[in-house]
Structure formats: structure tokens, C-alpha cells
Design goal:
The chain is of the alpha+beta class. Helix content is 33%, strand content 24%.
């Protein structure tokens, strides 16, 4: 599995961010081809001090090629272009292959 993580620093208008994200941005993301699962949270906390991020999004894909194809698709491009409409604090995007753990 390959994971895409989007980290959002605090925006200028948190209420606008939440409303726009849920009602406009997430519907764009739901149409990504190859998307296996997705999740998000506005309740980002740090173990010590204030969290450096306001919100987080995670998306799961079969592999890096599936993620790249999804992001390059028309749906992926629309979602990427939409970020400026709500993420006034910027955005950090990371991705990585997920290794299974054993106990």
C-alpha cells in the first residue's frame, strides 16, 4: 500500500476552511481513480505543546504508480487546484510506501 498525507497549517479563517473542505473539497477527492480509502481530521493534537497542523488528510492507494496516476488524472488535478480556495496557511504533502508491522 502507498499512503498520501496532506498536512494543513492553521488557516486564516478556520471556520471557512472546515466548511469549504467538507462541502467542496472532499467531494472532489472522493472521485479520485484508484483511491482505496481516505480519512481526515480537524482534531490534530501534539503530545507536547501546540500542534503545528490544523488538519490532516490521508489517502490509501495500491502502490506509488496508482497514486501518481490518480493525482495526474483530471479529478486529481481539480482537487490540487482547489487547495488555494481554503488552505490559506499553506499545505505540506508527503507520500510513502506503508510497511506492515508484526508483533
Amino acid at each position: 500500500m502507498h499512503k498520501l498525507v496532506v498536512l494543513y497549517p492553521k488557516p486564516a479563517d478556520p471556520d471557512h476552511f472546515r466548511d469549504y473542505y467538507v462541502n467542496n473539497h472532499l467531494p472532489l477527492v472522493m472521485n479520485w481513480p484508484g483511491l482505496l480509502a481516505w480519512r481526515y481530521s480537524f482534531d490534530v493534537a501534539a503530545t507536547n505543546g501546540e500542534a503545528p497542523y490544523f488538519a490532516v488528510f490521508e489517502a490509501d492507494f495500491a502502490d506509488a504508480a496508482a497514486m501518481a496516476a490518480s493525482r495526474a488524472s483530471s479529478h486529481g488535478q481539480r482537487a490540487a487546484a482547489d487547495v488555494v480556495n481554503y488552505a490559506t496557511g499553506g499545505v505540506v504533502v508527503i507520500h510513502y510506501p506503508v510497511q506492515d508491522g508484526t508483533s
